[in-house]
Amino acid sequence: MKKLLLIFLIPFLSTPLLAEGFNDNYFQVGYSTSNYKFTDTMTSVSGSAEFGNNYSISGEYFYEKGDWNDPGEYETSKKKRTIFKVAKSFPLSDKTDITTSLSYEDSVNKQVCTNTDGSDCTSSYSDGGTSKLKYSNVSLGIKNLISANSEVHIENTWTRLKSTTDIHYYTTSVELRNISESKLQSSFKYSLTNKVNNVRTSQLELGLIKHINENFAIGGRVLSHKNADWTEYGIFVRRSF
User: What are residue 20's phi and psi, to 5 degrees?
Assistant: First the structure.
């Protein structure tokens, strides 16, 4: 009877493949600055949880602010982004998983324009100062343990961006994560987005996480964007569970 019960529970107790020491069940709060013309600061709240049968869910909320001067004008921007993701992995072996995910992102940007004489010029925007974007994503990848403490994840994501018209594009990414014996976690991720408005863009992200104890960690990240060129610098606090 106990043996039959164990066989029944195995699919619900299994979790996605992870290198030793990693824990993707967490709640995180972060703050970033950037040298992008339209975004000065970003505050984020995110979380991730794994379930049985190799399922996981994650969510992120971003609040971004920026201000800048154009000839004769002063402009401000406030953007809110919400992302929800459901993922499932399929084991190929004790070291390799096929990864899949579905995600949805909702983005609302409110922009205000003021002339140098103090009068309002927001009405000059074609969208009246408020733009809304919706992203639907489907991902397929492969994750492999290259050592007990290191893993590599190669993934392709197909995106549908819905605004006034629909735009379709895809992004290929390679991510490497490692955790040392001192519980210092490092990551490297390179992403290439193909032909959005006939322009290729790329991102390079470097991250470090130091585990203070079993449940708490602090970290930092640098995210470099190419085409357009700008860099984001961030710190965060993470609570694992």
Answer: -60, 130
Q: Are 172 and 192 in contact (CB under 8 A)?
A: yes
CATH 2.40.160.40 fits 2-240, yes or no: yes
Residue 218 pairs with which residues in a beta bridge? 210, 237
User: And the tokens for 59?
Assistant: 């969510």
Name the residue ranges covered by the structural domains of the chain. Answer: 2-240
- Let me know: does 24 contact 50? Beta carbons within 8 Å: yes
For residue range 165-204, what is the model confidence (pLDDT) as tens digits? 888 999 999 999 999 988 899 999 999 998 766 788 999 9
Residue with token string 């800048």: 68
Secondary structure of 143-179 as H, E, C letters: EEEEECCEEEEEEEEEEEEECCCEEEEEEEEEEEEEE
Q: What does the pLDDT look like over 55-102, one tens digit per residue? A: 999 999 999 999 999 999 999 999 999 999 999 999 999 999 999 999
As a whole number of angstroms, the distance between CA 97 and CA 91 comes to 4
Q: Kindly report the pTM of this predicted structure.
A: 0.86
The DSSP line for 76-132 is EEEEEEEEEEEEEEEESSSSEEEEEEEEEEEEEEEEEEEETTS-B-GGGSTTTTEEE
Closest Cα to residue 175, out of 234, 239, 99? Answer: 99
DSSP character for 220? E
Nearest to 186 by CA among 216, 213, 156, 217: 217
State the virtual CA torsion across 155, 159, 34, 208 in degrees, nearest 10: -20
